[in-house]
Amino acid sequence: MPSLCRDCLTCFETGSRCPSCGGPRVIAHPELMELTIAHMDCDAFYASVEKRDHPELRDRPVIVGGGRRGVVSTACYIARIKGVRSAMPMFQALKLCPEAVVVKGRMEVYVETSRRIRALMEELTPAIEPLSLDEAFLDLTGTARLHGAPPAVMLARLAKRMEEEIGVSGSIGLSHNKFLAKIASDLDKPRGFAVIGRAETADFLRDRPVGMIWGVGQAGQAALNAAGIRTFADLRRWDQKALMTRFGSMGQRLYHLARGEDARRVTRDRAVKSISSETTFSEDTADREILDGHIWRMSEKVSDRAKAQDRAGRVVVLKLKRADFALVTRRHALREPTQMADTIYRAARALHEQLGQPGPWRLLGVGLAEIVPAAKGDLSGDLLDPDSRRRAAAERATDAIRARFGADAIRKGRGLR
Amino acid sequence: MRISIERAQLLRAVSQAQSVVERRNTIPILGNVLIEAEEADVTFRATDLDIEVIDKAAAQVGRAGSTTVSAVTLHEIVRKLPDGALVTLNADPSTDIVTVEAGRSQFQLKTLPKEDFPVMPASQYSSNFSVKAEVLRRLFDKSKFAISTEETRYYLNGVYMHVAESEEGRVLRCVATDGHRLARIDAELPAGAEEMPGVIVPRKTVGELRKLLDDDEADIAVSVSETKVRFATPDVTLTSKVIDGTFPDYTRVIPANNPKRLEVDAKDFARAVDRVATVSSERSRAVKLSMDEDRLILSVNAPDSGAAEEELAVAYGDEKLEIGFNAKYLLEIASQVDRENAVFMFNSSGDPTLMREGSDTSAVYVVMPMRV
């Protein structure tokens, strides 16, 4: 069976140890040298970067996240042993793992590290689809000749170089489509390399829970469970029409995913779906003035990020979480896409006013959805709101001052509430 | 009920009815047309609860009575019958079936009890006046393109018909805007309209009204109250609720002192805009107008698909100006011009632009520029 040593990259046919270096990190699979679609997922990325830069933290549980009422954005594998998970409220994480070192994230360092990993990937293939800072799909179809080695070897080499040159580890999933590659990268974490071949696809999926499907969250799972669908085998019993009747456009996708089929291509410019920012309050509040201050600050953050990414959005989303964690979201479609804080704030504020629910709330978020390039946003302004042109000009001027003298050089009063 | 009616008459009545009824409604009776026969008259009544249209048609009434039947189905049948056919509708009160017969065709349609048919309550109208169809047609045809479809600003989803003070005195005025462009059309104030309350006539009503306005010389009886508006010809009565909202103060967005003046043949201009816009496949295609000394260059630059440029001889004597617009909006306002040259008044590339026909101020249009 085709085998590959992940330490010295030797390819061989038989044996559970590498004949060249004697190492045990061997991956063997009948289709190893044929598969070309990969998913690379960094292991506890933010935490790994922190450990790399602070070697004294190496053997301690590290949680990256913010504040007592914030959430865990990443927990290292030591903290994970104690049950700490991403997106868990910080107080809960600290209850599980009181000895953890909590580090406030250094986003700019993560971005820079991610950029360096991206550069290594670029050497493998131009078909890279980043999903976030720490994971990406790679399509290595047709690159074997160029590199003089099949994709599996190049991917093992990528993982090795990430560890050696950048100091963070990653796990690789290799398969014949994106759906399975993403599942595979999760099978052998950390420092993993897992393969799902065509031949075993059906067997592999059969008894797995449908919650594995990317995009099927709690609600989706509940809906599937209500239809008696828990595993892929359950899903396979449904015909396409029945699934579409019951689950709409998602039904068709489910039908194909049930069979391990996924025709989506690895595309470089995957559309950014939304830009958002949210905050959990230090104590729950129903105070309109305070909430309004948060709406402004979140709008400004979203706007800053949209401006930095040269993007605009057509839909403004307001998200609120009640004290009992129940989530309320409202959307407003704008007349034209925007990246302006003033426009985002006005729409979010109107959504808040129309909400008709007093709170108290524990979290507030503002977002932009239906993202387009900035060149397609804020093109004409509102004829019926002549002041909007003046406010936009003021915002551009403010931005220029902040770019030169720092983000706090000039602030709106409402941001201080 | 038993009536015989000529196909053309029936088709006219039923087609108006089927366009009023709500297609996707969950209340079946709202998809039906109420047919009531008395002596030599048959009336067809349809409603979506916001609009009611009553159409009177001449017919031979064999047996008076009434019934309700699916407007869409009846319309489809009548439409497919041969021209000149005589159609007989026969509803037996003891069954829930109406039989439609024409020549050798026969159809049986299910009916619903007429008692369930919602009839719009009669209203008191504070103003009643009469206008020639061509006057109303101009007011609405020239303004309706600017009606907004934005649901959050529901008060823009119609044409604001009201009495206004213009340079020429008091006028009957229609205004529509969607925040991108605005149309303001004036007509002579008809006798009896002086005290008319301003009303926002919904988009759908404007569409239905249009069907009553084909005959230039016909007199349209208009009745207006705070909540309803009614337009009537001898045969057809269209009653509609008006939009319950306040139309924004549009006067402050109409630029009065834009200094730069461009005069251009509207048809040549529209054709040129249409031509250069072809290269862009964007939803909002931007056309750049560059003006200098009796010269206008229209250009489109679509990074993904191509570029185009066209030069027009125009009258322009002010300082150089470059300004961008949505091609669709430019085309729409330019196509409103039917007699004279189009006159554009600009301020800067960021300010609203005004367009009118020659020196006629009874129809003015405002359009927001676009960043290019």
From TrEMBL, chain A:
PROSITE patterns: UMUC. GO terms for cellular component: cytosol. Its EC number is 2.7.7.7. It comes from the Bacteria. CDD domains: PolY_Pol_IV_kappa. It catalyses: DNA(n) + a 2'-deoxyribonucleoside 5'-triphosphate = DNA(n+1) + diphosphate. Monomer. This is DNA polymerase IV. It comes from Mangrovicoccus algicola. The lineage of its organism: Bacteria, Pseudomonadati, Pseudomonadota, Alphaproteobacteria, Rhodobacterales.
Automatic annotation (TrEMBL), chain B:
Pfam families: DNA_pol3_beta, DNA_pol3_beta_2, DNA_pol3_beta_3. Residues 131-249 form the DNA polymerase III beta sliding clamp central domain. Keywords: Cytoplasm, DNA replication, DNA-binding, DNA-directed DNA polymerase, Nucleotidyltransferase, Transferase. One of its GO terms (molecular function) is 3'-5' exonuclease activity. It comes from the Bacteria. Confers DNA tethering and processivity to DNA polymerases and other proteins. Acts as a clamp, forming a ring around DNA (a reaction catalyzed by the clamp-loading complex) which diffuses in an ATP-independent manner freely and bidirectionally along dsDNA. Initially characterized for its ability to contact the catalytic subunit of DNA polymerase III (Pol III), a complex, multichain enzyme responsible for most of the replicative synthesis in bacteria; Pol III exhibits 3'-5' exonuclease proofreading activity. Belongs to the beta sliding clamp family. Forms a ring-shaped head-to-tail homodimer around DNA. This is Beta sliding clamp.
